[in-house]
Amino acid sequence: EVQLVESGGGLVQPGGSLRLSCAASGFPFSDYWMHWVRQVPGKGLVWVSRIDSDGSSTSDADPVRGRFTISRDNAKSTLYLQMNNLRVEDTAVYYCVRPSRVGASVRSYYYYGMDVWGQGTTVTVSS
Amino acid sequence: QSVLTQPPSVSGAPGQRVTISCTGSASNIGAGYDVHWYLQVPGTAPRILISGNNNRRSGVPDRFSGSKSGTSASLAISGLQTEDEADYYCQSYDTSLSAWVFGGGTKLTVL
What we know:
Chain A is built from no helices and eleven strands. By secondary structure, chain A is mostly beta strands. In chain A, strands 2, 4, 5, 6, 9, 10 and 11 form a seven-stranded mixed beta sheet that branches. Chain A has a four-stranded antiparallel beta sheet with strand order 1-3-8-7, with no helix packed on it. Chain A is globular. Chain B has strands at residues 9-12, 18-23, 36-40, 47-51, 55-56, 64-69, 72-77, 86-94, 99-102, 106-110. By secondary structure, chain B is mainly beta. Chain B is 0% helix and 47% strand. The relative contact order of chain B is 0.34. The N and C termini of chain B lie far apart (28 Å). Chain B has no helices and ten strands. In chain B, a hairpin with a 6-residue loop joins strand 3 and strand 4 (47-51). The interface between A and B is medium-sized, with 27 and 29 residues.
């Protein structure tokens, strides 16, 4: 069974740090780009970061650039999100997501849908 | 303010047909990037319904269909059922932002 399981969320003060982890199983993790997507409770989905298959290339959304770092350990089939200098507005459920080319019109990760989602881990930034 | 614009809510009676629009721009949908649709029951993770504009994913009833034209896309749901009540999101890629982008979400109510 294809599965993503996030962990590492919790309560942290503004300016603090957290590292989220996502354990992948049931598929060849090292073959896939991976994303982090977040959702403020009651609000919409927002893309946060992505990493390519071997970890050599990453990109981040403007609100987190310079504060968050996405990384991966393919030997452990694990995705990470290091979050530094956290702000109140970073409070959200964070999802680990695997894209898939199933149904895509072009064979490029920029055209792929977000196929597999973890259950999410909650990050609360508050004093 | 989401890059892709969806109506906040739509509603319909059981058995009726509803459509949810997703309006983008020349740097995302209009640039040819695929549009994908997700369903989310509150308190659970999203799941993909439609990928590549109009391809239903495994297990998705044929009551759900997607389309794309110009800078917009639509999700149509026919034969509404009470279990269709959920939040629906569209998603694409934006080349100007170099970012994957979502619509703000549409809450479907089955009256």
